[in-house]
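I would like you to help me understand the sequence and structure tokens below and explain how sequence relates to structure.
___
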Amino acid sequence: MARFYIENFGCRATQADGAALERQFLDRGLERAASARDAEIVVLNTCTVTEGADKDARASIRRLQRVNPDGRILVTGCYAQRAPKELAALPGVTWVVGNSHKHRAAEIAAGSQIAACSDAACSTIGSSSSVVSADATSLLSSSTTSGFVPLGQLSSDLAGRVVVGDIFAHTELLAAPVFEAANQRTRPNLKVQDGCDNRCSFCVIPSVRGQSRSLPAERVIAEVRSLVEAGYREVVISGINLGRWGRDLESICRPSAASSVSKQTTGSLRLEVLIRAILDQTSLAKLRISSVEPMDWSDELIGLVASSPRIARHAHVPMQSGSDAVLRRMHRKYRPWHYRGKILKIREAMPTAAIGADVMVGFPGETEAEFGETRRMIEDLPFTYLHVFTYSARPGTPAAEQSGQVPAVVARERSRVLRELGSAKRTAFMTSLMGTTVEAITLQAGSAEFTGALTENYLKAKISGRHDANRWMDMKVEGVDGEMLRGKAIDAARQ
């Protein structure tokens, strides 16, 4: 029986796709391998959000060639959707499967014939395909910014190996829970939304993941119930643009008289409706919401998170820049004063909540004055952590063609400044919790000395003594050790 191994790169959405891929392979009767070295089929589930992500994938392919020369490599994910011919040209790559056909990756790797649609017709391709066109050399050397390869343009050498279609015609949404780490099977992450209808000038994601689409509420509820029945006490819901959940389901879900979600909906389906349904229809102890764009942090959503003890006090609100001019060049849909107002509302509603942001430095044309606006906004706002990114030009995006590309040395220095600022804010937040009681979930069975945990407000912690994994408990904060809170359990019996 063939064995498979999946290596995931990038964001939580990609990790969630990897979990769904694993389900595919297991359902087809393949076995998990302990490592890539031991597998007959190795799946690389790639990211392409930065140039560095592309480099990581290529380096992994070269490494696999060395450690497992007989293994067959299937490359899928966002890089495969964006640049399939580039990947197909690499030695050792057996198949390239775009996001458009990721839901059939196991079928492809198992050798079944598949139906894949070109822009003009639908053809069946497989190991015996007779689709012929231009020679492989010219195909591989030609460039494409969309990543879409019509089957009619594939040579006989590539037709059975490259399966990529129009991502904007793609309606599948892979869904399976993914865990933070292999040795920490707590806090499963469930992707409930994929794709994005925004068109930020720096972002390649819409062209590789397609339009926004949502996992129907009934399926979300079923997945959460399964996780609760399996014993999990926190579930994280995530998406590429999570705040847009449900917008594409309105015409499908709302007319259904049988749908409990529909009954409580008088207007459009929104994320708040899904959250209420999870709370009402499952016994989940704690729900955590991942990144939500500032436009989608409605007063109702803020109030819901603040009022329910079953929702983690945690708001991640992408910022990108504090400069109005830069936000306009990015094609972001909010202005600095809008963003500031949302953050202050969240802090007022939840005084001890974790509040985090994504921030980009080095966007084309970013001046020292514009960077200063970002730095000052971060200084003024009550963030507890930052994710700082350096701009990376992505082929086919408007920003890649803009003038005024910021020198790498300047971007690195700006990144350093913001990372230090973020670290100082995190330390100040941890210090402010001294002597208070916080909720924390244990991540794995502890030693006699202490047990690792994560607080409701997204801080690493260590709790005195040995405790079982996957348990919520109240912790009295006694100190700060580096980037971790230190404390003792005052309600160790709590589940």
Remarks:
- Residues 82 and 308 are 41 Å apart (CA to CA).
- Residues 113-157, 251-259, 262-267 have pLDDT under 50 and may be disordered.
- The domain at 437-489 is CATH 2.40.50.140 (OB fold (Dihydrolipoamide Acetyltransferase, E2P)).
